[in-house]
UniProtKB/TrEMBL annotation:
GO-annotated molecular function: DNA binding; DNA-binding transcription factor activity
Entries under InterPro entries matching the protein: HTH_MarR-typ, MarR/SlyA-like, Tscrpt_reg_MarR-type_CS, WH-like_DNA-bd_sf, WH_DNA-bd_sf
PANTHER family on file: HTH-TYPE TRANSCRIPTIONAL REPRESSOR YETL, TRANSCRIPTIONAL REGULATOR, MARR FAMILY
Domain called HTH marR-type: residue spans: 21-150
Organism: Plantibacter flavus
RNA-binding as UniProt keyword: no
A Gene Ontology biological process term: response to stress
Keywords, alphabetical: DNA-binding, Transcription, Transcription regulation
PROSITE patterns: HTH_MARR_1 (PS01117), HTH_MARR_2 (PS50995)
Name of the protein in its database record: DNA-binding MarR family transcriptional regulator
Amino acid sequence: MDGARATDGVIADAARDPMADWPTGRLLSTASRLIEHTWQQALDGIGVTHAGLIVLHLLDSGPASQKELARRARVQNQTMSRTLDRLERAGHIERIAAADDRRRHVVSRTPAGDEAWLAAHRLEADVFPDLPDESALRSQLLAIIRSGESARWSPEDVEPA
């Protein structure tokens, strides 16, 4: 498709919807903020923050250390500590001293954490719009994230697939 044809559709769309001519970055940023706000409101109803939900998701594969959770979530250890404190106070996780090193704690989900995780999955269907090809959108979003991740995160920070 040549440049004129590619922009003709965008210009025609812009006549109907002024947002149609926004740069892609602005569209992504706006969509992100709107979804994040709506998602956080929904999560508030089950007593979990977005950061807490990320931890509950990471614990779906089993217990892990705080350091491992921080690495996989791509946050600082201190940030993970605060998130774990909130989850522990809410009864969603427990920290148990590791058998081989009492200074290290193993974090696992509690039954209440399992319930919160399942409730969040049910909420997701209500929060996010139905899309004609969600898997294509997910693939495109992953491509965008991966194209920028090398500048932000080192290879050892990347969670294995």
